[in-house]
Amino acid sequence: MIRLNLDVKDYSFDVSRNVRESFKKPILMKLDHKEYNFFTTYVIIDFSKLEMKYIQTYSDENLGKCKDVSLNIFSHSVTPIVSGKEFFDFLYNNDRTKNNCFKYFNVDEKELIVYFAQDLDIENKDVLGRTSQHGVNRGDKNNLIISFGRTDKPATETYMCSKDMKTAKKLFTLDGYHFPQHSVETFKDHLFTTEFEDVKFRTKYGEILNGEADIERLIKLRFDEHGGNSLPGVIYDKLFKLWREKNFNIDEFERCPGEIIVFNLKDLNEPYKVFETGFAPSHIQFDEENDILYVSSHNFMKIFEDLILLAPAEIHKYKLVDGELVYLDYFTEPTFWRCPDHVFFRHNGHPYIAAMGFPNRLFFIDAETMKLHYYYDIKGDIISEQKDLRVFLNNLMKNSKEVFLSSIPSLDGNYISFWDQENMYILDFDKRKIIESVGFKMESTFRQNTTHSVYM
User: Fold this and answer.
1) Radius of gyration of the chain from Cα atoms?
2) 3-state class of 238 per DSSP?
3) Edge-to-edge strand order for the sheet containing 183-187?
4) 97 pLDDT band (50/70/90 cuts)?
């Protein structure tokens, strides 16, 4: 483990009384260091106090202590433990082999602890390196569930860990999976996991390919058969890149359904259940009153270091019945791409989903009918005029510096908050327009990168 110091500063801001009363709990915004993504500034926005608390992790001293940490991994999903005072942060990196740690924060003590799998008293800890991008405690303030990937074989192991990481109990092992589960959630004595990088494709000959690794090997084999294997290393890499840009077509591979894996936490000896869902499944939201799950499907993949959008995103709706997931419906739209975040909420008693589409279209979905309620284009419509939207969006994925990743509704659903690189915006749900904006402080070496916001 590595112990780091925090610098905590408070700044005031102002919003209208109606907004202040609707956001009854503090929410989270995150600013990442542009060079060292690992060093995030966490901003807890407390509307009741009209206060933004900046929890800064970057300093020369902290940088010097992190020589064994991949500094390209960035904050992904925060799990609150004690409101505004204690939380865990689970991290993400495109190179998942380096995603090997997670963070614990005690704000009052101004302490940050970086944990590795090797810090835990668990078996096989020497071959556990990669960690899940979500941890869950769902009301349990003393324990949380974390998934780790093995480095010696395709397998993941999931543990119930004490808050201080002094005790850990293995819940289950999943063999044949290359990555630790991206999303780990509990509900009604069940644990639900998804993983968007353990995807499968089918070739026109019926062969099943396991994710980007198999496709990359196949494309390199084709290049070698065209004379690539006779080229020296440096020239090989350059010509291979040019060759695949001309000859590689991801659409020749059929996307296979993704998986939701369900475990019975009351009986860990009971075999886990696997349910089909959309391609590249990711995040899960719950309607706890009605035992409903909403599971997003990114419909993208990472290959040759690029993130490629394949088709519009989807959100699939299920009902939990006696440990089984009963499929109900799904939502998609031609301009609904990537869906990095979706949030279930109620407004005047009716269920809705707020879902951010790439790059700047915020969708509001009627969660009862799974039909579009309306969408809001942040800073204008740049999508409708495009003749080939997928090509446009994939080019934008490589070049855009301003991407809207997440939103968070107020507890009464009256307002939705989201961020760009300068301001926090408040959108009135009924009026369908931004009614307030609040500037926030950010040094030039940082960028706003709130992948998921939560109530703290």
Assistant:
1) 22
2) helix
3) 183-187, 190-194, 258-264, 273-277
4) low
Residues 355 and 332 sit within 8 Å (Cβ to Cβ): no
Of 111-120, 126-135, 264-273, the least confident:
126-135
- What's the first-to-final CA gap in the chain, in angstroms? 25
- Spatial neighbors of 184 by CB under 8 A, at least 6 apart, are 132, 134, 135, 136, 145, 146, 147, 158, 191, 192, 193
Domain boundaries, the chain: 2-199+256-448
The whole-angstrom separation of Cα 391 and Cα 188 is: 42
Q: How far is CA 146 from CA 130, 169, 270, 425, in A?
A: 11, 10, 20, 33
Residue 38 main-chain phi, psi, to 5 deg: -60, -30
State the number of CA atoms in the 13 A half-sphere of 422 facing the CB. Answer: 2
Q: Count Cβ neighbours within 10 Å for each residue of 250-287 and write b for 16 or more, e otherwise.
A: eeebebeebbbbbbebeeeeeeeeebebbbbbbbbbbb
**What does the buried/exposed string (b/e) look like for 349-388 if buried means 16 or more CB atoms within 10 Å of the residue's CB?**
eebbbbbbbbbbbbbbbebeebeebebbebeeeebeeeee
Distance CA 184, CA 322 (A): 20
Model pTM score: 0.93
Label residue 96 by pLDDT band (50, 70, 90).
low
Q: Convert the pLDDT of each residue in 152-188 to its tens digit.
A: 888 999 999 998 888 999 998 999 887 888 888 999 9
Rounded percentage of the chain residues whose pLDDT exceeds 90? 66
| The CATH classification of domain 2-199+256-448, taken from the options 2.30.40.10, 3.40.470.10, 3.40.50.740, 2.130.10.10 | 2.130.10.10
Q: In the predicted model, what is the mean pLDDT of residues 80-105?
A: 83
Give the type of residue at 229.
N
